[in-house]
Amino acid sequence: MILNQYCQLIKLMRSVINEMTKNSKKTTLLVLASTFPRWNDDTEPRFVYDLCLRLKEEYTLIVLAPHEKGAKNKEVIEGLQVYRYRYAPDFLEILAYEGGISAKLKGNKLNYLILPFFFLGQWIAIIKLLKQYPIKAIHAHWLIPQGILALVARLVSRNKPAILCTSHGGDLYGLNDPISKTIKRYVIKNVDAMTVVSYAMQDEIKKFVPTAKQVVVAPMGTDLSNLFIPDDSVKRKPYQLLFVGRLVEKKGLQYLLQAMPDIIKHYPETCLNIAGTGPEQALLEVLVKELKLTKHVFFLGRLSHQALVNEYRQAAMAVFPFVQAKNGDVEGLGLVMIEAMGCGCPVIASDIPAVRDVIIDGKTGVLLESANSKDIATKILTLYTNTPARKKLVTQARKFVVNNFDWNISRNTYSDIIKRLSDNE
Protein backbone atom coordinates (compact mmCIF):
# COMPACT_ATOMS: atom_id res chain seq x y z
CA MET A 1 0.00 0.00 0.00
CA ILE A 2 2.87 2.37 0.90
CA LEU A 3 4.57 1.52 -2.39
CA ASN A 4 1.34 2.28 -4.27
CA GLN A 5 1.00 5.69 -2.55
CA TYR A 6 4.67 6.43 -3.33
CA CYS A 7 4.10 5.64 -7.02
CA GLN A 8 1.05 7.89 -7.10
CA LEU A 9 3.07 10.72 -5.50
CA ILE A 10 5.84 10.34 -8.09
CA LYS A 11 3.26 10.38 -10.87
CA LEU A 12 1.69 13.56 -9.44
CA MET A 13 5.08 15.26 -9.15
CA ARG A 14 5.94 14.38 -12.73
CA SER A 15 2.59 15.83 -13.85
CA VAL A 16 3.26 19.09 -11.99
CA ILE A 17 6.80 19.33 -13.40
CA ASN A 18 5.55 18.66 -16.92
CA GLU A 19 2.89 21.36 -16.56
CA MET A 20 5.46 23.84 -15.22
CA THR A 21 7.83 23.02 -18.08
CA LYS A 22 5.00 23.38 -20.57
CA ASN A 23 4.02 26.79 -19.13
CA SER A 24 7.63 27.98 -19.07
CA LYS A 25 7.80 27.43 -22.84
CA LYS A 26 4.65 29.42 -23.52
CA THR A 27 4.82 32.95 -24.87
CA THR A 28 3.61 35.49 -22.31
CA LEU A 29 0.88 37.76 -23.63
CA LEU A 30 -0.36 40.90 -21.86
CA VAL A 31 -4.00 41.75 -22.64
CA LEU A 32 -5.22 45.30 -22.06
CA ALA A 33 -8.95 46.03 -21.91
CA SER A 34 -11.40 48.44 -20.34
CA THR A 35 -14.20 45.85 -20.39
CA PHE A 36 -13.64 42.60 -18.50
CA PRO A 37 -15.73 40.60 -15.98
CA ARG A 38 -15.35 42.06 -12.49
CA TRP A 39 -16.74 39.10 -10.57
CA ASN A 40 -18.69 35.86 -11.03
CA ASP A 41 -21.90 36.23 -13.05
CA ASP A 42 -20.97 39.76 -14.12
CA THR A 43 -23.19 40.95 -16.99
CA GLU A 44 -20.44 43.06 -18.58
CA PRO A 45 -19.60 42.11 -22.20
CA ARG A 46 -17.21 39.17 -21.98
CA PHE A 47 -15.71 38.87 -25.48
CA VAL A 48 -12.19 39.81 -24.28
CA TYR A 49 -12.46 37.24 -21.49
CA ASP A 50 -13.77 34.57 -23.86
CA LEU A 51 -10.92 35.16 -26.31
CA CYS A 52 -8.38 34.90 -23.48
CA LEU A 53 -9.87 31.60 -22.32
CA ARG A 54 -9.42 30.18 -25.81
CA LEU A 55 -5.81 31.33 -26.07
CA LYS A 56 -4.60 30.14 -22.67
CA GLU A 57 -3.56 26.69 -23.87
CA GLU A 58 -1.02 28.30 -26.22
CA TYR A 59 -0.03 31.41 -24.24
CA THR A 60 0.52 32.52 -20.67
CA LEU A 61 -2.17 35.19 -20.31
CA ILE A 62 -1.90 38.28 -18.11
CA VAL A 63 -4.93 40.58 -18.20
CA LEU A 64 -4.93 44.22 -17.10
CA ALA A 65 -8.30 45.92 -16.62
CA PRO A 66 -9.67 48.83 -14.56
CA HIS A 67 -10.58 48.28 -10.94
CA GLU A 68 -14.04 48.99 -9.58
CA LYS A 69 -15.46 48.79 -6.09
CA GLY A 70 -16.21 45.16 -5.21
CA ALA A 71 -13.67 43.69 -7.65
CA LYS A 72 -10.39 42.10 -6.55
CA ASN A 73 -7.12 43.88 -7.29
CA LYS A 74 -5.54 40.61 -8.38
CA GLU A 75 -6.90 37.12 -8.97
CA VAL A 76 -6.58 34.01 -11.12
CA ILE A 77 -9.70 33.19 -13.14
CA GLU A 78 -9.65 29.85 -14.97
CA GLY A 79 -5.89 30.06 -15.47
CA LEU A 80 -5.85 33.76 -16.41
CA GLN A 81 -3.80 36.11 -14.22
CA VAL A 82 -5.99 39.18 -13.85
CA TYR A 83 -4.69 42.50 -12.52
CA ARG A 84 -7.04 45.45 -11.93
CA TYR A 85 -5.31 48.79 -11.68
CA ARG A 86 -6.43 51.46 -9.23
CA TYR A 87 -6.85 55.00 -10.50
CA ALA A 88 -8.92 56.67 -7.77
CA PRO A 89 -10.66 56.00 -4.43
CA ASP A 90 -13.46 53.43 -4.64
CA PHE A 91 -16.23 56.01 -4.98
CA LEU A 92 -14.49 57.66 -7.95
CA GLU A 93 -13.60 54.50 -9.89
CA ILE A 94 -16.64 54.90 -12.10
CA LEU A 95 -15.33 55.49 -15.64
CA ALA A 96 -15.30 51.92 -16.93
CA TYR A 97 -18.09 49.30 -17.11
CA GLU A 98 -21.89 49.81 -17.02
CA GLY A 99 -22.11 51.44 -20.45
CA GLY A 100 -18.47 52.34 -21.06
CA ILE A 101 -16.17 55.33 -20.77
CA SER A 102 -17.73 57.44 -23.54
CA ALA A 103 -21.20 57.16 -22.00
CA LYS A 104 -19.86 58.09 -18.56
CA LEU A 105 -18.12 61.17 -19.94
CA LYS A 106 -21.20 62.21 -21.91
CA GLY A 107 -23.46 61.70 -18.91
CA ASN A 108 -21.42 63.85 -16.53
CA LYS A 109 -18.77 66.32 -17.70
CA LEU A 110 -17.15 66.25 -14.24
CA ASN A 111 -15.99 62.71 -15.02
CA TYR A 112 -13.41 64.26 -17.36
CA LEU A 113 -11.53 65.23 -14.18
CA ILE A 114 -11.00 61.53 -13.45
CA LEU A 115 -9.80 60.71 -16.97
CA PRO A 116 -6.11 61.69 -16.54
CA PHE A 117 -5.86 59.43 -13.49
CA PHE A 118 -7.53 56.59 -15.43
CA PHE A 119 -4.84 56.90 -18.12
CA LEU A 120 -1.99 57.33 -15.63
CA GLY A 121 -3.07 54.38 -13.49
CA GLN A 122 -3.16 52.07 -16.48
CA TRP A 123 0.14 53.34 -17.90
CA ILE A 124 1.97 52.78 -14.59
CA ALA A 125 0.43 49.30 -14.28
CA ILE A 126 1.58 48.36 -17.81
CA ILE A 127 5.16 49.45 -17.03
CA LYS A 128 5.16 47.42 -13.80
CA LEU A 129 3.95 44.30 -15.58
CA LEU A 130 6.53 44.72 -18.35
CA LYS A 131 9.22 44.72 -15.63
CA GLN A 132 7.69 41.80 -13.73
CA TYR A 133 7.03 39.36 -16.59
CA PRO A 134 8.85 38.31 -19.79
CA ILE A 135 6.05 39.70 -21.96
CA LYS A 136 6.60 39.03 -25.66
CA ALA A 137 3.43 40.65 -27.00
CA ILE A 138 0.66 43.02 -25.94
CA HIS A 139 -2.91 42.76 -27.19
CA ALA A 140 -4.50 46.18 -26.67
CA HIS A 141 -8.28 46.26 -27.11
CA TRP A 142 -9.39 49.69 -28.38
CA LEU A 143 -7.18 52.37 -29.92
CA ILE A 144 -7.83 54.73 -27.00
CA PRO A 145 -6.76 54.42 -24.28
CA GLN A 146 -5.21 50.94 -24.40
CA GLY A 147 -3.49 51.29 -27.80
CA ILE A 148 -1.76 54.59 -27.09
CA LEU A 149 -0.84 53.63 -23.51
CA ALA A 150 0.77 50.38 -24.70
CA LEU A 151 2.91 52.32 -27.18
CA VAL A 152 3.97 54.96 -24.64
CA ALA A 153 4.75 52.31 -22.01
CA ARG A 154 6.91 50.43 -24.51
CA LEU A 155 8.86 53.60 -25.25
CA VAL A 156 10.07 53.88 -21.64
CA SER A 157 10.47 50.17 -20.94
CA ARG A 158 13.52 47.94 -21.46
CA ASN A 159 11.13 45.23 -22.56
CA LYS A 160 9.97 46.01 -26.11
CA PRO A 161 7.07 43.63 -26.81
CA ALA A 162 5.23 43.58 -30.11
CA ILE A 163 1.83 45.30 -29.96
CA LEU A 164 -1.41 44.12 -31.54
CA CYS A 165 -4.30 46.57 -31.34
CA THR A 166 -7.94 45.63 -31.95
CA SER A 167 -10.52 48.32 -32.66
CA HIS A 168 -14.10 47.37 -31.81
CA GLY A 169 -15.90 50.31 -33.42
CA GLY A 170 -16.71 53.03 -30.91
CA ASP A 171 -13.05 54.03 -30.63
CA LEU A 172 -12.69 54.34 -34.41
CA TYR A 173 -16.02 55.97 -35.23
CA GLY A 174 -16.87 57.92 -32.10
CA LEU A 175 -13.77 59.85 -31.05
CA ASN A 176 -13.57 62.64 -33.62
CA ASP A 177 -12.11 65.66 -31.85
CA PRO A 178 -8.69 66.79 -33.22
CA ILE A 179 -6.67 65.36 -30.32
CA SER A 180 -8.36 61.95 -30.49
CA LYS A 181 -7.92 61.79 -34.26
CA THR A 182 -4.21 62.53 -33.90
CA ILE A 183 -3.83 59.82 -31.26
CA LYS A 184 -5.75 57.29 -33.36
CA ARG A 185 -3.56 57.94 -36.40
CA TYR A 186 -0.42 57.55 -34.29
CA VAL A 187 -1.61 54.23 -32.87
CA ILE A 188 -2.65 52.82 -36.25
CA LYS A 189 0.70 53.77 -37.79
CA ASN A 190 2.91 52.53 -34.96
CA VAL A 191 1.44 49.28 -33.64
CA ASP A 192 2.92 46.10 -35.08
CA ALA A 193 -0.44 44.66 -36.11
CA MET A 194 -3.97 46.01 -36.34
CA THR A 195 -7.26 44.13 -36.35
CA VAL A 196 -10.85 45.30 -36.69
CA VAL A 197 -14.11 43.43 -36.25
CA SER A 198 -15.75 44.15 -39.62
CA TYR A 199 -14.93 44.90 -43.25
CA ALA A 200 -16.64 48.28 -42.89
CA MET A 201 -14.09 49.21 -40.23
CA GLN A 202 -11.24 48.01 -42.43
CA ASP A 203 -12.45 50.38 -45.16
CA GLU A 204 -12.77 53.20 -42.63
CA ILE A 205 -9.18 52.79 -41.46
CA LYS A 206 -7.91 52.74 -45.03
CA LYS A 207 -9.65 56.08 -45.60
CA PHE A 208 -8.55 57.50 -42.25
CA VAL A 209 -4.89 56.39 -42.53
CA PRO A 210 -4.07 55.51 -46.16
CA THR A 211 -0.51 54.52 -45.16
CA ALA A 212 -1.67 52.08 -42.48
CA LYS A 213 -0.05 48.66 -42.40
CA GLN A 214 -2.14 45.65 -43.24
CA VAL A 215 -5.40 45.77 -41.27
CA VAL A 216 -6.85 42.30 -40.65
CA VAL A 217 -10.59 41.72 -40.23
CA ALA A 218 -10.89 39.48 -37.18
CA PRO A 219 -14.24 39.70 -35.37
CA MET A 220 -14.67 38.52 -31.83
CA GLY A 221 -16.27 35.10 -31.71
CA THR A 222 -19.50 33.78 -30.25
CA ASP A 223 -20.06 30.47 -28.47
CA LEU A 224 -22.26 28.82 -31.08
CA SER A 225 -21.46 25.29 -29.92
CA ASN A 226 -22.49 25.29 -26.26
CA LEU A 227 -24.30 28.51 -25.34
CA PHE A 228 -26.03 30.29 -28.21
CA ILE A 229 -27.74 27.25 -29.68
CA PRO A 230 -31.37 26.46 -30.59
CA ASP A 231 -33.62 24.50 -28.26
CA ASP A 232 -36.64 23.01 -30.00
CA SER A 233 -38.25 22.24 -26.64
CA VAL A 234 -38.70 25.99 -26.03
CA LYS A 235 -41.81 27.34 -27.69
CA ARG A 236 -41.50 30.73 -29.35
CA LYS A 237 -43.97 33.46 -28.46
CA PRO A 238 -45.42 34.46 -31.85
CA TYR A 239 -45.71 38.21 -31.16
CA GLN A 240 -42.79 38.84 -28.82
CA LEU A 241 -40.08 41.14 -30.17
CA LEU A 242 -36.65 41.43 -28.61
CA PHE A 243 -34.03 44.17 -28.50
CA VAL A 244 -30.62 43.54 -26.91
CA GLY A 245 -27.94 46.17 -26.38
CA ARG A 246 -26.76 49.20 -24.46
CA LEU A 247 -29.32 51.99 -24.36
CA VAL A 248 -27.27 54.56 -26.25
CA GLU A 249 -28.00 56.69 -29.30
CA LYS A 250 -26.32 54.50 -31.92
CA LYS A 251 -28.58 51.53 -31.09
CA GLY A 252 -31.58 53.44 -32.51
CA LEU A 253 -34.10 51.98 -30.07
CA GLN A 254 -36.33 55.07 -30.23
CA TYR A 255 -37.18 54.24 -33.86
CA LEU A 256 -38.34 50.76 -32.89
CA LEU A 257 -40.50 52.23 -30.12
CA GLN A 258 -42.01 54.70 -32.59
CA ALA A 259 -42.86 51.76 -34.88
CA MET A 260 -44.69 49.87 -32.13
CA PRO A 261 -48.11 51.63 -32.32
CA ASP A 262 -48.48 50.70 -35.98
CA ILE A 263 -47.48 47.08 -35.28
CA ILE A 264 -49.86 46.85 -32.29
CA LYS A 265 -52.70 48.23 -34.41
CA HIS A 266 -52.45 45.09 -36.58
CA TYR A 267 -51.34 42.65 -33.87
CA PRO A 268 -52.48 43.85 -30.39
CA GLU A 269 -50.68 40.94 -28.67
CA THR A 270 -47.27 42.31 -29.70
CA CYS A 271 -44.83 43.10 -26.92
CA LEU A 272 -41.20 44.21 -26.89
CA ASN A 273 -38.63 43.03 -24.36
CA ILE A 274 -35.60 45.32 -23.98
CA ALA A 275 -32.50 43.64 -22.53
CA GLY A 276 -29.87 46.18 -21.53
CA THR A 277 -29.27 49.42 -19.67
CA GLY A 278 -27.60 52.70 -20.50
CA PRO A 279 -27.67 56.48 -20.29
CA GLU A 280 -30.66 56.83 -22.66
CA GLN A 281 -32.96 54.64 -20.55
CA ALA A 282 -34.80 57.46 -18.77
CA LEU A 283 -35.57 59.21 -22.08
CA LEU A 284 -36.73 55.96 -23.63
CA GLU A 285 -39.02 55.23 -20.68
CA VAL A 286 -40.61 58.67 -21.13
CA LEU A 287 -41.12 57.89 -24.84
CA VAL A 288 -42.82 54.60 -23.93
CA LYS A 289 -45.30 56.49 -21.73
CA GLU A 290 -45.91 59.16 -24.37
CA LEU A 291 -46.69 56.48 -26.95
CA LYS A 292 -48.95 54.65 -24.45
CA LEU A 293 -46.86 51.49 -24.70
CA THR A 294 -46.44 50.65 -21.01
CA LYS A 295 -48.47 47.42 -21.42
CA HIS A 296 -46.42 46.36 -24.42
CA VAL A 297 -42.80 47.37 -23.71
CA PHE A 298 -40.74 45.91 -20.86
CA PHE A 299 -37.27 46.98 -19.71
CA LEU A 300 -35.55 43.82 -18.44
CA GLY A 301 -32.23 45.41 -17.44
CA ARG A 302 -28.90 43.64 -17.88
CA LEU A 303 -29.32 39.88 -18.19
CA SER A 304 -26.98 36.99 -17.50
CA HIS A 305 -25.84 35.09 -20.57
CA GLN A 306 -28.17 32.19 -19.85
CA ALA A 307 -31.14 34.51 -19.32
CA LEU A 308 -30.28 36.19 -22.61
CA VAL A 309 -30.22 32.82 -24.37
CA ASN A 310 -33.71 32.16 -23.01
CA GLU A 311 -34.94 35.47 -24.46
CA TYR A 312 -33.45 34.68 -27.88
CA ARG A 313 -35.13 31.26 -27.86
CA GLN A 314 -38.57 32.63 -26.99
CA ALA A 315 -38.71 35.73 -29.20
CA ALA A 316 -40.53 35.75 -32.53
CA MET A 317 -37.74 37.95 -33.86
CA ALA A 318 -34.89 40.16 -32.66
CA VAL A 319 -34.76 43.74 -33.95
CA PHE A 320 -31.63 45.93 -34.06
CA PRO A 321 -32.44 49.39 -35.49
CA PHE A 322 -28.85 50.74 -35.50
CA VAL A 323 -28.20 54.35 -36.52
CA GLN A 324 -25.19 56.64 -36.77
CA ALA A 325 -24.95 58.81 -33.65
CA LYS A 326 -24.48 62.58 -33.87
CA ASN A 327 -20.80 62.22 -32.92
CA GLY A 328 -20.24 59.78 -35.80
CA ASP A 329 -20.27 56.63 -33.67
CA VAL A 330 -21.85 53.61 -35.31
CA GLU A 331 -22.00 49.87 -34.69
CA GLY A 332 -18.68 48.10 -35.31
CA LEU A 333 -20.23 44.67 -35.91
CA GLY A 334 -23.08 43.72 -33.57
CA LEU A 335 -22.39 40.40 -31.83
CA VAL A 336 -25.97 40.41 -30.54
CA MET A 337 -27.19 39.65 -34.07
CA ILE A 338 -24.91 36.60 -34.18
CA GLU A 339 -26.07 35.44 -30.75
CA ALA A 340 -29.70 35.66 -31.84
CA MET A 341 -29.04 33.77 -35.08
CA GLY A 342 -27.17 31.11 -33.14
CA CYS A 343 -30.29 30.55 -31.04
CA GLY A 344 -32.51 30.26 -34.10
CA CYS A 345 -34.13 33.67 -33.71
CA PRO A 346 -34.94 35.61 -36.92
CA VAL A 347 -33.06 38.92 -37.08
CA ILE A 348 -34.04 42.29 -38.52
CA ALA A 349 -31.38 45.04 -38.47
CA SER A 350 -30.55 48.39 -40.03
CA ASP A 351 -28.72 48.44 -43.33
CA ILE A 352 -25.46 49.96 -42.12
CA PRO A 353 -22.04 48.85 -43.45
CA ALA A 354 -20.94 46.58 -40.57
CA VAL A 355 -24.29 44.77 -40.45
CA ARG A 356 -23.74 43.55 -44.00
CA ASP A 357 -20.96 41.28 -42.69
CA VAL A 358 -23.70 39.33 -40.88
CA ILE A 359 -26.96 39.88 -42.75
CA ILE A 360 -27.44 38.95 -46.37
CA ASP A 361 -30.84 40.50 -46.99
CA GLY A 362 -33.52 37.86 -47.40
CA LYS A 363 -31.08 35.00 -46.76
CA THR A 364 -29.66 35.35 -43.24
CA GLY A 365 -31.86 38.19 -42.04
CA VAL A 366 -33.85 41.25 -43.08
CA LEU A 367 -32.31 44.69 -43.59
CA LEU A 368 -34.08 47.90 -42.54
CA GLU A 369 -33.72 51.45 -43.69
CA SER A 370 -31.83 53.14 -40.84
CA ALA A 371 -33.75 55.67 -38.70
CA ASN A 372 -37.06 54.84 -40.42
CA SER A 373 -39.82 53.74 -38.05
CA LYS A 374 -42.28 53.13 -40.87
CA ASP A 375 -39.92 50.68 -42.57
CA ILE A 376 -39.32 48.92 -39.25
CA ALA A 377 -43.08 48.39 -38.81
CA THR A 378 -43.51 47.23 -42.40
CA LYS A 379 -40.68 44.68 -42.21
CA ILE A 380 -41.85 43.27 -38.87
CA LEU A 381 -45.45 42.96 -40.06
CA THR A 382 -44.31 41.25 -43.26
CA LEU A 383 -42.21 38.72 -41.35
CA TYR A 384 -45.05 38.09 -38.89
CA THR A 385 -47.25 36.81 -41.74
CA ASN A 386 -44.61 34.79 -43.60
CA THR A 387 -43.83 31.69 -41.57
CA PRO A 388 -41.97 29.84 -44.39
CA ALA A 389 -39.67 32.86 -44.88
CA ARG A 390 -38.90 33.00 -41.14
CA LYS A 391 -38.01 29.30 -41.03
CA LYS A 392 -35.77 29.62 -44.08
CA LEU A 393 -33.98 32.65 -42.59
CA VAL A 394 -33.35 30.81 -39.32
CA THR A 395 -31.79 27.76 -41.01
CA GLN A 396 -29.58 29.76 -43.34
CA ALA A 397 -28.58 32.28 -40.68
CA ARG A 398 -27.37 29.73 -38.14
CA LYS A 399 -25.33 27.89 -40.77
CA PHE A 400 -23.76 31.17 -41.89
CA VAL A 401 -22.74 32.39 -38.44
CA VAL A 402 -21.36 29.00 -37.37
CA ASN A 403 -19.17 28.98 -40.47
CA ASN A 404 -17.96 32.56 -39.96
CA PHE A 405 -18.21 33.68 -36.34
CA ASP A 406 -17.70 30.68 -34.07
CA TRP A 407 -14.98 31.11 -31.43
CA ASN A 408 -12.82 28.41 -33.02
CA ILE A 409 -12.39 30.61 -36.10
CA SER A 410 -11.64 33.76 -34.09
CA ARG A 411 -9.22 31.95 -31.79
CA ASN A 412 -7.21 30.57 -34.69
CA THR A 413 -7.00 33.98 -36.37
CA TYR A 414 -5.76 35.76 -33.25
CA SER A 415 -3.43 32.94 -32.28
CA ASP A 416 -1.74 33.07 -35.68
CA ILE A 417 -1.29 36.86 -35.49
CA ILE A 418 0.14 36.75 -31.97
CA LYS A 419 2.48 33.88 -32.82
CA ARG A 420 3.83 35.78 -35.82
CA LEU A 421 4.37 38.91 -33.73
CA SER A 422 6.07 37.13 -30.82
CA ASP A 423 8.33 35.12 -33.16
CA ASN A 424 9.49 38.35 -34.81
CA GLU A 425 9.84 40.26 -31.55
UniProtKB/TrEMBL annotation:
One Pfam short name: Glyco_transf_4
Keywords recorded for this protein, A-Z: Membrane, Transmembrane, Transmembrane helix
Limits of the Glycosyltransferase subfamily 4-like N-terminal domain: 46-225
InterPro entries in the cross-refs: Glyco_trans_1, Glyco_trans_4-like_N, Glycosyltransferase_grp1
Keyword Plastid: no
Residues annotated as domain Glycosyl transferase family: 235-399
GO molecular function per UniProt: glycosyltransferase activity
Stated name of the protein: Glycosyltransferase family 4 protein
Domain of life: Bacteria
Membrane-spanning segments: 110-130
Organism: Leucothrix mucor
Annotated CDD domains: GT4_PimA-like
